[in-house]
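Before the break, one more example. Copy the sequence into your notebook; we will annotate it together after we see the structure.
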Amino acid sequence: MTFRARLLACALPLLIAAPLAAQELQADPQDEPPDEEVPKGEIIVTGRGLDPALSSGIYATTTLERETIIAAPSGRIEDVLRNVAGFQQFRRSDSRSSNPSAQGVTLRALGGNATSRALVLLDGVPVADPFFGYIPLSAIPPETLGAIRVTRGGGSGPFGAGALAGTIELESAEPGGLNPLLASAAINDRAETEASAVLTQRLGAGFATASGRWDRGQGFLTTPPAERVPATARARFDSWNVALRAAAPLTPDIELQARVAAFRDARTLRFAGALSTSEGQEASIRLVGRGALPFDVLAYVQARDFTNIVISATRFTPTLNQRATPSTGVGGKFELRPPLLEGHDIRIGADWRRATGETDEDAINAVTGRITESRRAGGTIDNLGVFIEDDWQIGPLTLNGGLRADRSSITGGFYRAVSPTGVPVATILPADRSEWTASWRAGALLYATRRLELRAAAYTGLRLPTLNELYRPFVVVPVTTQANADLESERLRGFEAGFDWQPVSAVVLSVTAFENRVKNAIANVTVGPNLRRRANLPEIRARGVEASLGVKLGAVSLDGSLAFTDAEVRGGTGPSAELDGKRPAQTPRLAASMTLGWQPAPGWRVAGTLRYTSSQFEDDRETDRLPPATTLDAFLAAPLTGKLALIVRAENLTGETIVTRNQGGSRDFGIPRTGWIGIRYGF
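Here is what the structure looks like once it is written out:
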């Protein structure tokens, strides 16, 4: 009997017994904790930041609650975010089968080159890698989160210099939404495993939460059968993360929050020996005041490293050993909300970020195995921003205006290559540079009726190039991409208009039409056979429609999202002229998802998610096409006894062939049909 058959045989009796256990659980009222009233004067510590501003409803915003976050069929954060209209990763593969440095995220089909164009915050702290700009997705366990808020369009508030395409705010779960112990374990039909635990303890008026997760497995074969060779390897993965978070009151109105975390992720990609590792340690401290003068003060430090071995696609021996890529990110912010004028919600603040890092790597002769060249590259990027924003409420009308000024500097940049004997081969020492830039946003929200809200907004945005884009060349066989130390910052301007309509209590429809233009968009531009170079495109224009639908009819729910985007490159002159009118690389025209859920009793959840992504191109010249993909995923949670539940998940139930990479006919495939079974305690 195969492992898949044994797994199904074990699951069948549990599936049959689950409804009986659910009835037993439902019949015992003692399992439900009694409602408790908060004694008058008691301090409530939430672990959150300040409440979202009134203007959060002016811009196209989607909020995902915990119930949705912990019911992802893959159990991974990128799967949760794919339910948001306009969300996109650089590649279609998930964080088990892609190179970590390719995990950039963006919104609104603005394209990219594996660097994130969207700002991702975890409890207010930017999480992007300081050197590459990618998001360490495997280090963000969904079970620790309480909510996710995605705002599309340029941002001008805290850390707005990274919010070119929008902001993704991840908020840790509050202690009131967590049981003292949450734990889960699962195994799939390839004998891959995942295990996680979240322990929450009240400490006087505060609390502490410790969490950990471990995912490992042999992976699947990403290489198509016709392209496999003896050196072909499975996408093996082994990742873990741990975190400790605590919050305590300093006064009845001031809360102190602190967090420390560490993670490590090792993956094998395509060929035996093609091993990549990413790891990091981070710490943050935050003061939140909720009194007469609300404030939010934050400081953080991040230490990251990345290694990667590139294997020849013809000889299947190492051609590059990226031995280390140490980087450090430090920063902080201060935000004040003074009650200056009645009817106004004013926010004043400043933030600062510094990214420092370098790469150390050896080029290797694939035939002899000897080092042919050693390279080092790196530098420092600083950004200081000051901002002011105001929400003005006039009866049914809310007006918003925000202004931000950023001083950015790029210093200490270098690229050096030496021979095995230490003789210089190439040296680039670009001049230090700095600049001031301004960005703004403005919008209005009108409560037209009790069930209809109309909104419109305009904005600009900014993203600085990363150290990786500026200084480090790289190879994705057979294509070499050169760095460019002269890259300018990306600038966005855009506008949007939409409505939120609730025709009946059970139905909510949101529609937004937009046009965004990115000037100096950084892309990998083809300059020769198997040769690309990072360059600023004159412009990328994206215009389209985003829609989301939520329906709740008793125990049945329907959640859908759709993003249709007409995006094109304005190529101008030079090498990018050939790109004029073409779609940005890795950008689909249409992406849609629909989740149908059923909760027949407390603790139960049955859901299926259908997703469609239209075709897109791997490259800038539209020669390597990625065909459209339609996938069907499923999730089942069935109470067994007490706080214990059975979890059954399925990814790509129809076995769709998902092409995630196509470079000159060399392809990679995404996740095949995969079934999971496990148990969950305390959720």
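Confidence is low (pLDDT under 50) at residues 1-38. The first strand starts at residue 61 and ends at 65. Try to locate both features in your own notes.
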